[in-house]
Amino acid sequence: MCGIIGITGVEQAAKEVFVGLFTLQHRGQDAAGILSYDDGSENPEQLGFHIWKDTGLVDNVFNEHIIERLSGTVAIGHTRYSTVGSSEDKSDVQPFALNYPYGIGIAFNGNIVNYGEISEKLRKEHRRHFLSTSDLEVIQNLFADRLAQVTNGNDVTMDHLSQAVQAVYDEAIGGYSVVTLIADHGLVAFRDPKGIRPMILGRKQLANGKYSYCVASEAIVFSFLGYEAMRDVEAGELIFIDRDGNLHSRVLEQTNQRAHCMFEWVYFSGVESILEGLPVYEARLKLGKGLAKMIQKAIDSNEMRPDIVVPVPETARIASIALAEEINVPYREVLIKNRYIHRSFILGTQNKRAKAVDLKLNPVRTEIKGKNVLLVDDSIVRGTTSSRLINLVRSAGAKEVYFASTCSPIRQPCYYGIDFPNEKELLATGRSEAEIAEKLNADKVVYLEQSSLRKAIGHNELCMACLDGKYPTDVSSGKKFSQQRQRQRSRVWP
Ligand code: SF4
């Protein structure tokens, strides 16, 4: 998962993109980058692309002087969460840039399931040499090749762009949102045909009456930058804001069944965000209420006796408040987070994940000692974080420790941009709840049921494939995808 943003029509677009990236930092903490284009109208010496990117947090990658140098009225930005390659690999840091045709800057969020097949074909039949392990290079090649063919050097039109994006849709199976900047033409954005990965469109009226536009992974960006949210980009839709500020849009792939990733509401998106018209905050409250019903049953049947409800910071907080209210058990924030350690789920390797849990949470022993603690988290993926948390609470003197997850058991891999491509890594695969509890050293584990999860989000067209195995696209390349990701991830950099 990553955060993407594109802005056009303001004096220095990179400044706004920079602020936007801060608001999307939770979507990826491995690397960040901004690419801007200056048409040279104010200062001919500034003509061209300006790019800055590196591994690290937004705050570490950029400073005031760097942002000043990223001139131009159009810019795109990216925060990276590595599902592919090593988190230290600088060649995978986005945005990418191409000098032909026209000059193209591009960034994306997602994964291509059949990356292996397409990249092999491009290598063999078109003699392409790949410079990174990123799926983006495949999208970039498909898009740029077709654009070069259909425009033949003429000005880019909406029809040309439709054909270029269609070339991506025809070949690339997966979940992806893409933002592209074409020199002297404008900003382009498109979303995968099932709408798996999110993308939203906003605008801001300028003093001259014209509008500047922003596309981003989440609406959270808009409130910080003063944009009004217009709407979600449709599944299979192409958006083009030309250099005169005119907005064009076209749905290229009609689907009768969209498949928005449920994990956006459960875990990934900021609580302030609204996706597909459904507020994340409200969904998390309802997830907590749904879980409360199940916990109440377990209390009534004497399977647990919680004295306090404790959220695992930060994502589970809202659901835990609702849960505690419903079952009338005190809510206590007794796991104190060190804000300066990376989010554990995002970190690239098992070893690093384990270390991050040790470093980032400190228990308030006086409040935990002698109590039965109900820990609430957004999900249990590999179980590394969950078992360390349970042991942490036990070592702080808890009598009994229960673990509740607002997400149902994750038993299938994700091929669409969340970092669990291999079912062997998933704790719940092939295990019952009792076996999971034993593995985690918990007195009891409770998962929210799938039907309640769907109800809490309130959308009929969701991807829940990692829970129910019903993938919204062809995943016949999935095995190859998982093996490839495994190999790339184990590449260790000095
Ligand atoms: S498989 Fe799971 S994590 Fe992946 S897109 Fe679907 S719901 Fe989201």
Describe this structure as you would to a colleague.
The strands form six sheets. The chain has a seven-stranded antiparallel beta sheet. Strands 5-6-7-8-12-13 form a six-stranded antiparallel beta sheet, covered by helices on one side. The relative contact order is 0.12. It is an alpha+beta fold and 494 residues long. The protein has two domains: 3-259, Aminohydrolase, N-terminal nucleophile (Ntn) domain (Glutamine Phosphoribosylpyrophosphate, subunit 1, domain 1), CATH 3.60.20; 282-462, Rossmann fold. The chain has helices spanning 13-23, 58-61, 64-69, 115-126, 136-151, 158-171, 220-225, 263-268, 280-300, 317-327, 350-360, 365-368, 384-395, 433-440, 450-457, 465-468, 478-489; strands at 3-8, 31-38, 48-55, 74-80, 96-98, 104-112, 174-182, 186-191, 200-205, 211-216, 228-232, 237-242, 247-251, 260-261, 274-275, 278-279, 308-311, 335-337, 361-363, 372-377, 400-405, 444-447, 462-463. The chain contains 17 helices and 23 strands. It starts with a strand and ends in a 5-residue tail after the last helix. Helix content is 34%, strand content 24%. Helix 9 (280-300) crosses helix 10 (317-327). The model has no long low-confidence stretch (mean pLDDT 92). Bound molecules: iron/sulfur cluster. Residues 175, 196, 261-263, 414, 416, 418, 463-466 line the site of iron/sulfur cluster (SF4).
